[in-house]
Structures are given as C-alpha cells and as structure tokens.
C-alpha cells in the first residue's frame, strides 16, 4: 500500500492498480466543504495510466451518514455535492462504492454516482432528506429511480425511510453483498473484487427509467404525502421524483437542485434542524462529572397495559426484568400482552423466534414482592392513587438495597409526597412513560425535591439505552407533556362551547399537522379518565372557566371507543363518524347557557390552539419546570403528535417577534376568561437552546 497522497478528511491510497479514496471525517464521515474538496482532489490526483478502478469507502463504520446539517444554515459553497457526484460519474475508470454502516442522504447519492455498489451486510441505505425539510440535492431523486424503479424510489424518498442491505440488494440498489465482516478481511475482499472487475463504466444517469403506471404512481404519491401530515418537503420530493423519465436527466437534476435550494431556508426546514440538534443534546448535565450507576436488573410493579409495556421496553434493551403483579389473572394477562407483541414482531420480520425466546428467558413474572431484593431499579406502574403508591414505596424501601433507584410512572401525582418518609429519598424519581411504553419515544425523567444528581445521571443513561427521547423536569402537576396537552385540550373545549364542532376542530388541527384531533384522541383514550379527574377538582371549578359539554357526554355513557360512542360514533371498522346526537347535546348546552354559536375558520382554530400551547410553555418556563426550553418542543413532538416540521410552541414563538407574540397572548387571555394565567413573553429565550448547539 502506498502512502496517502492526500491528507485531512479524505485520503488517497494506491493499492497496485486500484486507487482507494477513503472518507475520514469522524464520527460519521458527514459531508462538509473539506470532504467535498478532498474527494475532488483525490480524483484529480489519481494516476489513470496506472489505475484500473477506484474504490470509494469510508474510515470507521460508515461510508457517509449524510450532510453536516449546520451547513444548511448558510449559503451553499463550492464544491457542491452535485459537482462531486458529477466528478465521480465522469471519472474515466470505473468507481466502486463500498456501502457500509449508515449510508444516508449525500452518502447514498455518492454511491449512486458510482458504477458499482458493494455493501456490507449490516449496512443501512436511505435518502431521508425530507425528515430535515429538504429533498435530495445531488441527483438522488433521478439516479435512485433508474436503479430500483419509480415505485420503490418514490416510497424511499417521500417517506424518507431507509432500507437494510438485504432489501437493497433485492431492489437492485446495491450490486453485491460482502461476505467478510472483519475489517481487514473485508478490505482484502474489496480489493480483490476491484482487481477482478471488468464490467466498465455504468453511470445510472445513462440508464432508462423503467416504465410504470402513471395513475398508480400518482395514487402512491398521494398516499405518501398524506402520511407526511403536511410536511412541505414530502410533496416537493414526490413532484421531483415523478419527473424521472419525463425530463432529460440534466433537466430533472436541475429541477431537483432548485427544489433543494428553495426548501433549505424554509421555516419547516429550520424547525426540523432545530429539533434534530435539540434531540441530540444531553438531557441532563450534572454540576460535576458523575458516572451513572450500572443497571442490570429492573423490577416493574404492575402488569397492566402500562406496566407490561414498560417491561417489554426494558427487556428489548437487554435488561433482566421482574414483572410483579399480585393479581394472578392480571399477571397472566400482562405476560400474554408481552408475548403477543413479540409474536407480532416475528410476523413483521423484526425479530427471530430465537431472539424472542432469549428475551422471554430474561423475564421473571412473579407475585412475590420479595423478588425485588437485589434489583437495581424499581419502576412502579400501578393505579393513580397517592395513598396506594406511598404504601407501596414504603414496602419496597424495606426490601431493596439503600442504593436501589425507586421510580414512579405517575402522570400527575406529587412525587415528593410519594417519597415522603422513604429512607435515602435522593434515589426516588419519576420515570413517566407514554402509552404504549414500548413504542412511544418520550420519557419524562422527573426530579423530586430530594432526587440526587447521581440518580438523574443514571436515569438519563437508562433512557438513552432504552432509545427514548428523555427530558428532565421538576416535580409539578402534569409535569410538561400532560400539562401542555391539558391547556391545548381546554382551549379546544372553549372553541367547542363558542360555536365550532368537534369535527371541524379535529379536521383543522389535523390539517395543521397534528397526528389526530383532540376529540378523536379523547375518544380513543376514554372520556371517563378526564371526567374522573374533573370530579376530583369540582370544589375549585368556580375559580375558572368550565365547559360542561364533556361531562354531559359521559353522563350519557358516551365514553369514547370503549362504548362505541363519544364525540363520534364508532362502527365495526372503529372509524369515527359524526353523530347528530352530539350536535344536539352541544346545541342544548349552548342554549341553556345563553351562548350564541359563532363561526370559526380553520386558521382561527389553529391559532387559538397553538397560542394556548405557547402560553402554557411560557408558564412552564416561569415556574422552572423544564431544564431547557427546547424540552417543551421535544415533549410535544414525541409524545403528542405535534408536527415536527412546525418545530413546537417555543420555536414558533421565537419566529413571531416580541410584539406579535404579546398581542397573541393578550387576545388569548381575552377569549379564555376566568382563571386564565397569561404567560410572560420576556421569558422566551432569543434563540432555542438546541439551535445553538
């Protein structure tokens, strides 16, 4: 092997008659100015008279995991990625890409510009640009359809979902899988393949696009765009992909680049980049360096829907789990739920039967509370009753080591009261999972008055291993997520009282990008849950504006999907249908309370709901509930179906300007009535914490 002819982030080695270009920009070989210049310099430095083929590979685990998103904050500089892909394609000798690790975005566009693609069996390939608000900008929307056909390319690009190497070879995205897995042996295999390669140049730009049914493509694009919930880049991506075969390659690539440049500075792209960096920041930083305690064994108390979901989540991440439930029938049902979920993963080919069996071998279902002895962490997921939880924690404290972490999954109860009279209260905290716990990514790590930095550091490391988006919050009613959602739902009930219908409010907010409207969510969760909570606070109801419509529905046994009727009617297909009876209940309520219904536009509904979220976010900041302002936006995006491309209430408020924000807060206060607390716009940070990362 010759000495490298280039240095820095790209290296060129000559291995006999094979030139090897290695990207070396840790940790993931992301595309930067220096990397792009390095690739072009390496191509220029190759002695073509002594070279049969070029190998493009990456140091470490990846070829290239995409662009450095910080570059998108500024105007593009040369050399651009399209210039690099063009240079790879026009190289006089064949270029063989080695696809490994995460080969995404610009990394896959580099590979598509090569003549042949070898892939490590563990590689992941994709063009996820829509997830950060743009479209592929270096020929990906045109080369991918030529490699795998329009239907598959449309699905990959508009959804942004990557594929594994096995699927990639099935699609024709890669040409051959590498058999070796150890680095040195794999390198030898790559060189041997390149030395034996005799197939010449095969640029995808010169390949015809396989014909596909236009009507089917349009229907597929419409469905994919609908799933994106209004993400602007999804529609733009579909439009550009569908030009493949209709325009010349050069014309289509120019259209792609135009869309990329138009989207990169859009508010949606800014919002998505903001969340990208916010989610990757550490959720908690102690005052001094602290090593998290090692956790090997976790005990979950309660085998209901939440408890069994938590147990499954923890099992999936390699822990041994005791699932404790005193009721034998409930314990059996909890274990069956876990087994059913795993069977579903096997059917979806996400899990093998062998891995399922190994996972279940780490599950210890038990009715014996003494089984918690020797565990490292206990997570309680029983009924929301303060006295019952306090009794349980006292019982646990008598049976576990003094350093065992004790966590409650409570949604609303006061953790300080739960921890009262517990020895070593610094080990007590909240771990608030969201249902279903094994799927929902949000985890609120709740700090009580006594919780130590050691405990929070350990909990943060635990959350990371669970692959959760964790936010650290202080002990307060509803913490962050539920409190935000309560303010949002309350404002939607005000709109309902004032004249909007459940159907219009849901439709308006779904059009805004929410996964589901608030009244559909209420029906799905069960209207009796919120009803019981309202009954518990009936003595203070006179202190605030109160909408009685939800109570009337519950009194009529309209409890949501569980009774096949709530705000909507539900048939055998479980799809919500408007119900004239609900309209009658609402109309009668307005008449009895002297309320004259007024019309609302969808935009007015959206503005009221979003400003209510912003106002509550400001209240959370004023009370110091959050560690970081961006945690509010993370909570809504990952726990409540808020559209990622909108950023979140903190991000939106920052775009509004001080005067506009204050005017909106004043208008919200005016329409919200008695008991409304107005947030302070001055508490809004000038730039979101995550955007400064």
Automatic annotation (TrEMBL):
<dbReference type="InterPro" id="IPR001753">
    <property type="entry name" value="Enoyl-CoA_hydra/iso"/>
</dbReference>
<keyword id="KW-0443">Lipid metabolism</keyword>
<dbReference type="InterPro" id="IPR008927">
    <property type="entry name" value="6-PGluconate_DH-like_C_sf"/>
</dbReference>
<keyword id="KW-0413">Isomerase</keyword>
<dbReference type="InterPro" id="IPR036291">
    <property type="entry name" value="NAD(P)-bd_dom_sf"/>
</dbReference>
<keyword id="KW-0442">Lipid degradation</keyword>
<dbReference type="Pfam" id="PF00725">
    <property type="entry name" value="3HCDH"/>
</dbReference>
<dbReference type="InterPro" id="IPR006176">
    <property type="entry name" value="3-OHacyl-CoA_DH_NAD-bd"/>
</dbReference>
<comment type="pathway">
    <text>Lipid metabolism; fatty acid beta-oxidation.</text>
</comment>
<feature type="domain" description="3-hydroxyacyl-CoA dehydrogenase NAD binding">
    <location>
        <begin position="298"/>
        <end position="475"/>
    </location>
</feature>
<protein>
    <submittedName>
        <fullName>3-hydroxyacyl-CoA dehydrogenase</fullName>
    </submittedName>
</protein>
<dbReference type="Pfam" id="PF00378">
    <property type="entry name" value="ECH_1"/>
</dbReference>
<keyword id="KW-0520">NAD</keyword>
<dbReference type="Pfam" id="PF02737">
    <property type="entry name" value="3HCDH_N"/>
</dbReference>
<feature type="domain" description="3-hydroxyacyl-CoA dehydrogenase C-terminal">
    <location>
        <begin position="478"/>
        <end position="570"/>
    </location>
</feature>
<dbReference type="GO" id="GO:0003857">
    <property type="term" value="F:(3S)-3-hydroxyacyl-CoA dehydrogenase (NAD+) activity"/>
</dbReference>
<feature type="domain" description="3-hydroxyacyl-CoA dehydrogenase C-terminal">
    <location>
        <begin position="606"/>
        <end position="678"/>
    </location>
</feature>
<keyword id="KW-0511">Multifunctional enzyme</keyword>
<dbReference type="InterPro" id="IPR006108">
    <property type="entry name" value="3HC_DH_C"/>
</dbReference>
<comment type="subunit">
    <text>Monomer.</text>
</comment>
<dbReference type="GO" id="GO:0016853">
    <property type="term" value="F:isomerase activity"/>
</dbReference>
<dbReference type="GO" id="GO:0070403">
    <property type="term" value="F:NAD+ binding"/>
</dbReference>
<keyword id="KW-0456">Lyase</keyword>
<keyword id="KW-0560">Oxidoreductase</keyword>
<keyword id="KW-0576">Peroxisome</keyword>
<keyword id="KW-0276">Fatty acid metabolism</keyword>
<dbReference type="InterPro" id="IPR029045">
    <property type="entry name" value="ClpP/crotonase-like_dom_sf"/>
</dbReference>
<dbReference type="GO" id="GO:0004300">
    <property type="term" value="F:enoyl-CoA hydratase activity"/>
</dbReference>
<dbReference type="GO" id="GO:0006635">
    <property type="term" value="P:fatty acid beta-oxidation"/>
</dbReference>
């Amino acid at each position: 092997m010759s000495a490298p002819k280039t240095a820095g982030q790209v290296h060129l080695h000559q291995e006999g008659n094979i030139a090897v270009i290695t990207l070396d920009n840790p940790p993931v070989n992301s595309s930067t100015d220096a990397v792009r210049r390095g690739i072009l310099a390496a191509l220029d430095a190759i002695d073509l008279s002594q070279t049969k083929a070029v190998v493009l590979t990456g140091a470490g685990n990846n070829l290239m995991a995409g662009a450095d998103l910080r570059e998108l904050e500024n105007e593009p500089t040369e050399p651009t990625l399209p210039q690099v892909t063009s240079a790879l394609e026009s190289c006089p000798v064949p270029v063989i890409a080695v696809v490994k690790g995460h080969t995404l975005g610009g990394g896959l566009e580099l590979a598509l510009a090569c003549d042949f693609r070898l892939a490590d069996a563990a590689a992941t390939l994709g063009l996820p640009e829509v997830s950060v608000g743009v479209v592929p900008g270096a020929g990906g929307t045109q080369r991918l359809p030529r490699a795998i056909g329009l239907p598959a390319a449309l699905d990959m690009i508009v959804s942004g979902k990557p594929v594994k190497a096995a699927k990639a070879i099935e699609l024709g995205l890669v040409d051959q899988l590498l058999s070796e897995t150890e680095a040195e042996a794999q390198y030898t295999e790559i060189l041997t393949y390149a030395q034996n390669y005799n197939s010449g140049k095969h640029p995808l730009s010169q390949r015809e696009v396989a014909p596909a049914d236009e009507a089917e493509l349009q229907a597929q694009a419409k469905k994919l765009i609908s799933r994106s919930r209004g993400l602007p880049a999804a529609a733009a991506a579909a439009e550009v992909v569908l030009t493949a075969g209709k325009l010349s390659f050069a014309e289509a690539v120019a259209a792609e680049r135009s869309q990329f440049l138009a989207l990169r500075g859009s508010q949606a792209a800014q919002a998505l980049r903001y969340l990208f960096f916010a989610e990757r920041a550490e959720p908690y930083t102690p005052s001094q360096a602290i090593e998290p305690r090692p956790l090997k064994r976790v005990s979950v108390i309660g085998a209901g829907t939440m408890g069994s979901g938590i147990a499954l989540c923890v099992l999936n991440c390699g822990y041994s789990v005791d699932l404790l439930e005193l009721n034998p029938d409930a314990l059996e049902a909890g274990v069956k739920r876990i087994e059913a979920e795993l069977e579903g993963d096997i059917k979806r080919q996400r899990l093998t039967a062998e891995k399922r069996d190994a996972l279940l071998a780490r599950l210890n279902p038990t009715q014996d509370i003494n089984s918690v002895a020797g565990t490292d962490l206990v997570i309680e997921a029983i009924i929301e009753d303060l006295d019952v939880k306090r009794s349980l924690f006292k019982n646990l404290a008598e049976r576990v080591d003094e350093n065992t972490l004790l966590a409650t999954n409570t949604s609303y109860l006061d953790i300080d009261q739960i921890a009262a009279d517990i020895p070593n209260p610094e080990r007590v905290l909240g771990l608030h999972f969201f249902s279903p716990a094994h799927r929902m990514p949000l985890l609120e790590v709740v700090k009580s008055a006594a919780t130590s930095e050691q405990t929070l550091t350990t909990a943060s490391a635990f959350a990371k291993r669970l692959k959760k988006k964790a936010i650290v919050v202080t002990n307060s009613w509803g913490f962050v997520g539920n409190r935000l959602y309560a303010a949002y739902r309350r404002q939607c009930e005000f709109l309902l009282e004032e004249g909007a219908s459940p159907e219009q409010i849901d439709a308006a907010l779904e059009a805004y990008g929410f996964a589901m409207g608030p009244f559909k969510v209420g029906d799905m969760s069960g209207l009796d849950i919120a009803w019981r909570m309202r009954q518990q606070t009936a003595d203070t109801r006179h202190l605030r504006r109160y909408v009685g419509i939800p109570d009337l529905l519950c009194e009529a046994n309209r409890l949501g999907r569980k009774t096949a009727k709530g705000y909507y009617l539900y048939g055998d297909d479980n799809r919500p249908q408007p119900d004239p009876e609900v309209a009658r209940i609402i109309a009668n309520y307005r008449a009895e309370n002297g309320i004259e219904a007024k019309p609302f536009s969808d935009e007015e509904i959206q503005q009221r709901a979003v400003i209510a979220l912003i106002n509550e976010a400001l209240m959370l900041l004023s009370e110091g509930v959050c560690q970081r302002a961006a945690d509010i936006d993370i909570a809504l995006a990952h726990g409540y179906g808020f559209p990622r491309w909108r950023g979140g209430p903190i991000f939106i408020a920052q775009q509004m300007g001080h005067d506009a924000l204050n005017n909106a807060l004043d208008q919200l206060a005016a329409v919200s009535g008695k008991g409304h607390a107005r947030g302070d716009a001055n508490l809004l940070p000038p730039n979101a914490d995550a955007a400064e990362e």
